[in-house]
Amino acid sequence: MKKIFYGMVILAMSLFLSACGESAGADSNGEGTDEITIGYFPNINHVAGMVAEEKEMYSETLPDGTKVNYQYFPDGSAFMTALETGDIQGGLVGPGPAMNHFTSGAKINVVAAGSTGGTVIMARNGANIESPEDMAGKTFISPRVGCTHDVQFETMMKEEYGITSDRIDGKMKHVTGKPATYASLFETGKVDVATVPEPWASSIEAEGNGEVLVDTPNVAYGETLPAAVFVTSQDLVKNNPDMVQNIVDAHKQATEFIQENPEEAKQIAIKKIKDITDQELSKEVIDNAWERIDFTYDVEEKHLQDFANSSYDLGFLKEKPDLTGLVDKSFIE
Question: How many domains are contained in the chain?
Answer without folding.
Answer: 2
